[in-house]
Specification:
By secondary structure, the chain is mostly helical. It has eight helices and no strands. Helices cover 81% and strands 0% of the residues. The longest helix is centred in the C-terminal third of the chain and has 39 residues. The termini are far apart.
Length: 262
């Protein structure tokens, strides 16, 4: 079970780290790296305080059964949100998420505010980096706490496994960013979000049912079966939406041709 927790936390956290690193990179290039790093480090300290207080209290005082129900429902909603976006993108109903486009957009936004490369600490640059790292970091902390605290302590160190997965994701994203010195466009984020959406929904369904005292056949081994079920349903939904879009396009062409005809 611990390997599954670590893997899920790794994938989910990688998405958040990529998004946070993109903003930090924008601030470093368009303003200066001092402002970018100060904002990122300040956000990291804030996160440490939040997780060290609220995170421990959550795990220590909330009953495991109630926590599983709560976590399961939250993960289902969170996973379905990501899954919805991925399905719409694969079906062609929503534009693909482009990290490079976000990078260029943020650069334009910073320059529009008058941001320039300067050696001194720039308040706007610090605030932008701080906000990005804090928000994405809170999501990573949420992933680690919810994934880790939803298994019994006697079954292993869930939070430790989730934290290891998230830490590995963070280190790999930072190393990749330092090496390429560019937006991490090579990371297949859309596919990653689709996989994470499947995993979050599957784990959420499993844990929510366990919280209501339901005993799954095959125990933890049923989680991959849930993932396959959600994957098959998502694939069929993508095919259906693609067909619907093609029919709408064909109908629009026919109507346009009829209007052109004398």
């Amino acid at each position: 079970m611990e390997w599954a927790i670590a893997s899920a936390a790794f994938l989910a956290s990688a998405v958040e780290f990529v998004e946070a690193f993109t903003i930090v990179l924008v601030v470093g290039i368009t303003i200066n790296w001092r402002s970018s790093l100060v904002g990122a480090l300040a956000a990291a300290v804030t996160l440490a305080v939040i997780v060290g207080t609220l995170g421990v209290a959550l795990v220590k005082y909330v009953p495991l059964g109630d926590l599983r129900v709560f976590v399961g429902i939250i993960l289902i909603l969170f996973g379905l949100k990501w899954l919805k976006k991925a399905i719409l993108r694969y079906s062609g109903l929503k534009a693909l998420h482009d990290e490079e486009a976000i990078f260029e957009e943020k650069i334009a936004e910073v320059r529009a505010r008058g941001g320039t490369i300067a050696p001194r600490i720039h308040p706007f640059g610090v605030a932008l980096a701080y906000k990005a790292v804090l928000l994405e970091g809170l999501e990573v902390a949420f992933i680690v706490i919810t994934f880790g605290s939803s298994i019994d302590a006697t079954s292993g160190n869930g939070i430790g496994s989730a934290a290891i997965g998230a830490a590995i994701a963070g280190v790999l994203v930072i190393l990749a960013g330092v090496l390429v010195k560019a937006p991490l466009t090579k990371v297949p984020e859309n596919t990653l979000k689709f996989v994470v959406g499947i995993m979050l929904t599957s784990f959420g369904t499993f844990w929510a049912a366990e919280g209501f005292n339901y005993t799954w056949p095959l125990s933890d081994a049923f989680i991959p079966i849930l993932a396959v079920i959600y994957l098959a349903a998502s694939y069929l939904l993508v095919l259906f939406l693609r067909q619907q879009k093609q029919r709408q396009l064909a109908l629009s062409k026919e109507q346009a041709m009829e209007e052109v005809r004398p």
